[in-house]
Design goal:
The protein is built from 9 helices and 6 strands. By secondary structure, the chain is of the alpha+beta class. The chain is rod-shaped and about 75 Å long. Strand 3 and strand 4 form a beta hairpin. It has 3 domains: 46 residues, no CATH class; 38 residues, no CATH class; 40 residues, no CATH class. The protein has a two-stranded antiparallel sheet with strand order 1-2. The chain has a two-stranded antiparallel ribbon with strand order 3-4.
Length: 150
């Protein structure tokens, strides 16, 4: 810590000003100490992203944490993490595509919504949607029977 700051809070206050509500002190260069010119006030949520254990994703030239990508794309953090674990391509990982029971799916030239495919195949709507979210192909999602059910 800056020796002047350590000895005189008024000096710190004069250099940094009052901490804005919801903010915390951040070092600009983590390899340097808490010294004048190397500190700034940032939102606590932003500082939480600056940890060594944050999982960073670089996409289209931008590097952000999963949390930051989730806020930007609207895709829940857990969904992003799961998609990464399943080896999805980044454009699909960060896609806000949702599958509702009305989502149309085409198999062998026939197009129906998930709800109708569920009735036809006997595979639950939730199971079909989950399979698609996990990256299964439409064919695999609609033709793979659940073990023990014929």
């Amino acid at each position: 810590m800056d020796s002047e700051w350590k000895e005189d809070f008024a000096k710190f206050y004069a250099d940094m000003g009052e901490c804005p509500k919801g903010f915390t002190l951040e070092r600009i260069d983590v390899n340097k100490g808490y010294i004048k010119g190397n500190c700034k006030w940032i939102p606590k949520s932003e500082q939480n992203s600056n940890k060594n254990n944050s999982h960073l994703i670089t996409y289209c030239g931008e590097t952000k944490t999963i949390s930051q990508w989730a806020k930007e794309t609207g895709v829940p953090q857990r969904t992003i993490w799961d998609r990464l674990q399943y080896g999805w391509e980044l454009d699909k990982v960060l896609s806000a595509e949702k599958f509702s029971i009305r989502t149309p799916l085409t198999l062998n030239g026939q197009t129906m919504c998930i709800m109708d495919w569920s009735r036809k195949t006997g595979i639950g709507e939730a199971t079909i949607r989950k399979r698609l979210k996990l990256g299964w192909s439409v064919e695999k999602a609609l033709t793979t029977q659940i073990k023990g059910i014929q």
